[in-house]
Amino acid sequence: MGGEAGKPVGPDFQAGVPLESIPDGGTLPGRVGDEAVLLARRSDRVFAVGASCTHYGGPLAEGILAGETVRCPWHHAAFDLATGAAVRPPARDPIPCWNVERRGAAIFVTGRATPPPRPAAPLPHPARIVIVGGGAAGNAAVEALRLEGYSGSLTLVSADAELPYDRPNLSKDYLAGNAPEEWIPLRGRAFYEEQRVDLRLGVPAEALDRERRHVVLADGKELGYDALLLATGADPARLPIPGADRPHVKTLRTLGDSRGLVEAAGRAKKAVVLGASFIGLEAAASLRARGLAVEVVAPEAVPLERVMGQEVGAFVRRVHEGHGVAFHLGRTPREIGPTDVTLDDGSTLRADLVVMGVGVRPSTTLAESAGLAVDRGILVDGHLKTSDPAVFAAGDAARYPDARTGERIRIEHWVVAQRQGRTAARNMLGRSEQFDAVPFFWSAHYDVTISYVGHAEAWDSVEIDGSLDARNARVSYRKDGRTLAVATVGRDRESLLAELEMERTLPAD
Ligand SMILES: Cc1cc2nc3c(=O)[nH]c(=O)nc-3n(C[C@H](O)[C@H](O)[C@H](O)COP(=O)(O)OP(=O)(O)OC[C@H]3O[C@@H](n4cnc5c(N)ncnc54)[C@H](O)[C@@H]3O)c2cc1C
Ligand code: FES
């Protein structure tokens, strides 16, 4: 994703604009010299901020104002209008802010504002914090702790030898060959040094001694903690069929997996993707971009039907078929040979590369063996605390109470994991922040991006406004008259508004 965001257009705000030209509750794009700037107005207050999102450069002028924040249309990051701070992931860095002056009925931008000083962490705070898992949640927690002013000892342990990276990209632009290697790490090594983060990469945590408050690493070292975050994510499932362990059969979770797929794709002509999951289908699109013939095998009649319903699933299938992908639905693989896959009806598909996109299992072994409460995920309360008050859990591994329904849910979304990492970080510092964010995810297939807000495991009606095939639609999933989730294609602003609406329906504590 790139776009034209950031190209300076519109009036130069240094020369002044009438206050009335900025819609109340809205924004006016323009520039300060060569920099793209957005004026945002809340009644008589006017803010001047950078116009591009610091995540992938989304155009903030096409987003919405919510309270004193501006939200990005692409992946729903939010920035504080007064300070520029990235108050919601997936953005991590602030946008710039400018000083604004009102002279009569006109607004002038006078110069860059200086960023506010960092807060000091509330005292007393834990002397030693250990985070296990260097993915979305773990990295977000590290960054949030230092942003909150935490100055104590901070260690990030990860089984992955890489610096924390942009996992969603692994099945999209990176796998398709459109994202260079340097886009993938979330931060350079220098960032962690500056932030005094003790990085233990490529070393899984093997055991947890909760009585002594020690984490035991695979290299035999022990790390003491006063507060611990388990952000161990999820592991890709493998079908238990003959041939599943052949070297040309791949799963996709890590940067190493994606690199391995890129390498294998360079030697292959024909790929079979097992599973019509988001990751399986995104991988199919990326392998098509590399020129491979791709066939998808899945047991369901419609791809993604369980999550997105028949209409969106059928649309996604049409999009893929339009790019030459063949589907074998209602079928399961029986065996994987060196050059083919045999299906349950006895038919065979030639394949010199096989991708298994058949879902993930939450990574709970460490928690389970330490005696923490685990039930299809590490059980946490609304503050993301596990059954041990010194241990928190966040991300794909955690099952938490949905603030809207009270039901425990486990979500596998990048932004949810990041937001949970932040909430857990603040709660480790003694806050009592409830995790009540509305889930959001996006999925990209060729030039089609689907945005989804809310959470619907079952619904009694699906309402489509617009046309999916025209790539301009809003799909509402309802139960008992309540909208549980909204998927959009080509309507990013509506996705933001739907999220805002769902936030407002949060039951009072
Ligand atoms: C290819 C791909 C594409 C995706 N695309 C999207 C998308 O477009 N939109 C979206 O919303 N979501 C997407 N997701 C899902 C999203 O990436 C996950 O929901 C998110 O990464 C979960 O974050 P996490 O921190 O819980 O786990 P992860 O990001 O998986 O991080 C877990 C970390 O824990 C480490 N770990 C595990 N066990 C141990 C241990 N015992 N000791 C030490 N370290 C350990 C792992 O090595 C890993 O670094 C995608 C996922 C994949 C795999
Ligand atoms: S580009 Fe703004 S949130 Fe991704």
Portion of residues within helices? 10-25%
Return the average pLDDT rounded to an integer: 95
Tell me the fraction of residues in β-strands, as a range.
25-35%
Structural class per helix/strand content?
A: alpha/beta
Strand order in the largest sheet? 1-10-9-4-3-2
The molecules bound to the chains, other than polymers, are: flavin-adenine dinucleotide, FE2/S2 (inorganic) cluster
Largest sheet: 6 strands, antiparallel
Number of H- or I-type helical stretches: 9
How many E strands? Answer: 36
Rg (C-alpha, Å): 24 Å
Bulk shape: globular
* Low-pLDDT segments: 1-6
List the quaternary state of the chains: single chain
Q: End-to-end distance, in Å?
A: 39 Å
Walk me through the topology.
Blueprint: E1 17-18, E2 27-32, E3 35-42, E4 45-50, E5 64-66, E6 69-71, E7 78-80, E8 86-88, E9 97-103, E10 106-112, E11 128-132, H1 136-147, E12 153-158, H2 173-176, H3 189-194, E13 197-201, E14 205-209, E15 214-217, E16 222-224, E17 227-230, E18 234-236, E19 249-250, H4 255-267, E20 270-274, H5 278-289, E21 293-298, H6 305-322, E22 326-329, E23 333-336, E24 340-343, E25 348-350, E26 353-356, E27 360-362, H7 365-369, E28 378-379, E29 391-393, E30 398-401, E31 408-409, H8 414-428, E32 440-445, E33 448-454, E34 461-467, E35 472-479, E36 482-489, H9 492-504
Parallel strand pairs: 11-12, 11-17, 12-13, 17-29, 19-26, 20-21, 20-26, 21-22, 28-30
Antiparallel strand pairs: 1-10, 2-3, 3-4, 4-9, 5-6, 6-7, 7-8, 9-10, 14-15, 15-16, 18-27, 23-24, 24-25, 30-31, 32-33, 33-36, 34-35, 35-36
Helix pairs in contact: 1-8
The chain binds flavin-adenine dinucleotide (FAD) and FE2/S2 (inorganic) cluster.
